[in-house]
């Protein structure tokens, strides 16, 4: 439950809309990004598979790409615009007749320089957040590893839209299915559709990087072995089954305590920083606007107020299923494993024993809040790049076999 989990326990101007394409479904009107980061008072925090799988998944899909970059004659994008952090913004249409829905998936992508050898970090946000939760982290990662690819997914009702194929009484209502298997299937479809649009014969060497609910989704995906031998690593950010499950009892109370609307985007950014939901103004400036939508789209711009893009209370029936068996699935994943936490108190017994047995790498960032990738993007990027380098199979240099040495005339 993203930013909500820890709190309940412890105390874009946008680019012009892309031209219409035969299968493109435009995303709901984006919200203008603030021109400046609001100043805080003295009490505020300072910044501190193989190819057959890919083609099979898209056989019944209509896929469209809308990539928006500022043109050479236009002013450069502001620091809080997605083009500062990612190379492409993709809208991926998909129809699943078997399950009776049509989707317009939304992702941000910077492709790897060489998909055959350079890593692809696939990121998934937590509940209530969006793909831009990884924006500043993506920027920091590219400073350290310029050839890497980054794919940031957006879940249904968090930027991606899902509609039933059959007529409904209210066409605006998305099917209320936020079960973990469904969210995991959405993630796999987004990955495979992205690979198809990029003409990758197979996935690049892949590392999954999930925050909170996003970690549960990607861990579930890893447990299915759907990505095959291309999966090198699984990285979970500030999520542990024990503390997540215990937090659920307080969720409704916490959601009710949040402001239902904000008079402006700047006000929403300020609220996130002053409540220490986010602790990094640079991250807040890019991620917070994407969390909101106009309360009444017909209201003139100067009179607009904003509300949450994703209504979380209706997802309550699915909460207990999100984190069940998270620890065991994480530990059994056939990939190198890394867990980054904001505090050691979050380790449950199963993970504590496994960590002492060396079954996964543990890194604690005590200065960060629950959104570790937003609060400490530089540090998280350093840890993630180091983790990849230690587990990069392409970098392994094995000694020659004895038979090869003999054939070369070497003494053994």
From TrEMBL:
Catalytically driven reaction(s): [phosphatase 2A protein]-C-terminal L-leucine methyl ester + H2O = [phosphatase 2A protein]-C-terminal L-leucine + methanol + H(+)
Biological role stated in the UniProt entry: Demethylates proteins that have been reversibly carboxymethylated. Demethylates the phosphatase PP2A catalytic subunit.
Low complexity: bias regions: 45-64
Enzyme superclass (EC): hydrolase
Active site: 212, 238, 370
Source species taxonomy: Eukaryota, Fungi, Dikarya, Ascomycota, Pezizomycotina
GO MF, one annotated term: protein methylesterase activity
Region (Disordered): 1-77
Domain AB hydrolase-1 residue range list: 122-383
Sorted UniProt keywords: Hydrolase, Serine esterase
Record field: compositional bias (Polar residues): 65-77
Protein family per UniProt: Belongs to the AB hydrolase superfamily.
Pfam families, per database record: Abhydrolase_6 (PF12697)
This protein's name: Protein phosphatase methylesterase 1
Alphabetized InterPro entries for the sequence: AB_hydrolase_1 (IPR000073), AB_hydrolase_fold (IPR029058), PPase_methylesterase_euk (IPR016812)
Its EC number(s): 3.1.1.-
Organism from which the protein derives: Salinomyces thailandicus
Superkingdom as given in the UniProt entry: Eukaryota
